[in-house]
Amino acid sequence: MNKSRPLKLKKCYEVEFSQTGNLLVTVSRDVVLWDVPTRKKRFRAHPLSNPSYCAVDPSEDHIVVKNTTGQISIIDSVDGALHRTIDRRTGNEGSNILYSPSGEHLVDGSWDGQLTVRSATTGAIEFEKAFPDEMIMRITYNPVADKWFVAHQIKLSHPGKPDYLSIWDWPFSEPSDLIEFPKKNVRHMAVSPDASMLCITDTSTLHLVDLSSRTLLDWAPLAFCSGSLISWSPDSSEIAFVERGGVTFCSTNPLRKTHLVPLDYPSAVNYSPDGKLVALGDWTSGLLMDRAAVAPL
After folding, report:
1. 36-45 core/surface letters (b: 16 or more CB in 10 A; e: else)
2. Whole-angstrom Cα distance, residue 136 to residue 154?
3. pLDDT confidence band for 225 (50 / 70 / 90)
4. What pLDDT, on a 0 to 100 scale, did the predictor assign at position 185?
5. How far is Cα of residue 216 from the mean position of the Cα atoms in its chain?
6. pTM for the full model?
7. Rounded to whole angstroms, how far apart are CA atoms 27 and 73?
C-alpha cells in the first residue's frame, strides 16, 4: 500500500471503519465500501434515498444504513445487496446508528428524543425510551468502560435546561449517570478510547472534560461548520475534528492545534483502529491518507 499518496474517496459526508480497519464505508448519495489493504472499491450501493449514517457489524458481514428520514436497511458487505429492511417508517431522523458489541442489536436515536434498541435480525424494537423536548444528537459505545454514552440537546422551547450526557449499562433500562455539558447547543461528542475524557463541540468551542471528576480540562476555539465531528486517536493522545477550512488535529495534553488537512467543504473524520490512517469526508472530495503524512501547522 502506497502510504505517500492519499486515496481520493470522491464526495462523501460520512466515513466509518470496520473494527479491524480492513473495511471503510463512505456515504453520499450512495454507500461505497472500500477494501483498505488494497485501496480498492468493493462496491457502490443505493439501499435508501438520502443515506446519512452507517456502521459495520462486528463480524464485518453486513453494513447498517440509516437515512435522513430515519429509515434503516442492512446490506451485504460482499456485494452491497440488500440483506434486510429494518424499519421503513419515516420520522426517526436524528443520531447515528450503531451495532451492539455482539452484533445482535442496533442502537439509534431521533431528534424527537427517542432512544431505540432493535434486533438486528428481525428489526423488532426491544427497548425504547422517550425524552420529551430533547434531541438525541450522538451515541457512542466505549469498550474500556463497557458503557454507552448518549448526547442530549434540549430544544429551544425549553431554554433553561442544560444539554447533557446520559450514561448507560447494557441492557438499557435507565441511565446510570448524567453529566451536564459546559455549554448549550452541543453538536457532537466523543469519549476517549481510554474512557478518561469527553470531547464536546458546540458552535464556537471544543471542550475537553475529565470524565471522573466532571471538570473542564481545556478548551479550544472552533470555526464551526455543519457537523463539527470529532474522532479520537486510538491511544487517546490526539483529537481530529471538522471545522471551517478543513480537518484540524489537536494534541490533548495540552489541548493545542498541531496539524491541518485543508478541505473546501469538510464533513467527517475518523481514525483507523490502529491509528495509522485517517479518513476525511468532504462534500466534494474526501481522502484516505496516512496520519503521518498530515502537514503540521
Report:
1. beeeeebbeb
2. 9
3. confident
4. 86
5. 22
6. 0.96
7. 14
